[in-house]
Amino acid sequence: MNNREDVQFTSGGVTCRAWFYEGTPGAPVVVLGHGLGGVRTMRLDAFAERFAAEGYSCLVFDYRHFGDSDGEPRQLLDIDRQLQDWAAAIAYARTRGSGRVVLWGTSFGGGHVIVAAARDGDIAAVVSQCPFTDGLASALATNPLVAAKVTLRALGDRVRGTIGRTPRMIPLAGPPGSTALMSTPDALDGYLALLPEAGTFRNEVFARVGLDIPLRRPGRHASKVACPILFSVCETDSVAPAKATLRHAARAPRGEVRLYPEGHFAIYVGEAFERVVADQIEFLLRCAPVRN
Fold this sequence. Notes:
Blueprint: E1 4-11, E2 14-21, E3 29-33, H1 44-53, E4 57-61, H2 79-93, E5 101-106, H3 108-120, E6 125-129, H4 135-140, H5 144-162, E7 169-170, H6 187-192, E8 205-206, H7 209-212, E9 229-234, H8 242-249, E10 255-260, H9 270-287
Parallel strand pairs: 3-4, 3-5, 5-6, 6-9, 9-10
Antiparallel strand pairs: 1-2, 2-4, 7-8
Helix pairs in contact: 2-3
């Protein structure tokens, strides 16, 4: 496992837990974070191990309220808190290497890294994989009836939170037509395919986030990302529409795009994973080399 150790850092007074892969002395630290409700055991180790084999150090973390990190209540998906977690992870990464930091985020995390890099201003490079870049575009791609049901449940949860009642939960992924944040034909099977054989995972979050997602457009920050940024885009992405992502990517001053003829969940496994990770390694070696 390339000298992987368990580490932790603090975000908002709460402990976030992570894996740290020790790379070549002086190498950049690649910080990896997952997507919508995802945790590090859902194939992030596969990417980190490949980067570590090239000499990079890697920090793979769980957001507050999820996975092995602390934070109550559990399964609270708060976008602003997750962006704070990215800032805290970056700060910790800078204490563990040369000071050069690379961001790698996938799906929802692919949007987070665009915002985090724009805000930080001193990131070496970014990989934004099948990124959520435009909440409006994702909402418009959703079955209208499903979107209405998700909104109603989210409103109910927001009201219950205001008056101190127990939350209303919503599945992260569900079958087509179900009331879930992702209910495209490939969503449930694709999401479950990322789970390890051992371990526990809760396919639900506080429903209130359904009100926030359509309003978020992290792709608009791409124009403010000064460092090289690679967009790994799935052409048939049913969750994060490729057209919107390409529109935002075109505004990144040092943006690069790699297109893959797969859906949103396919590039984590199998032959598609091999192609994607090879392209990402090529980008990293060229734009944020192991030896500066």
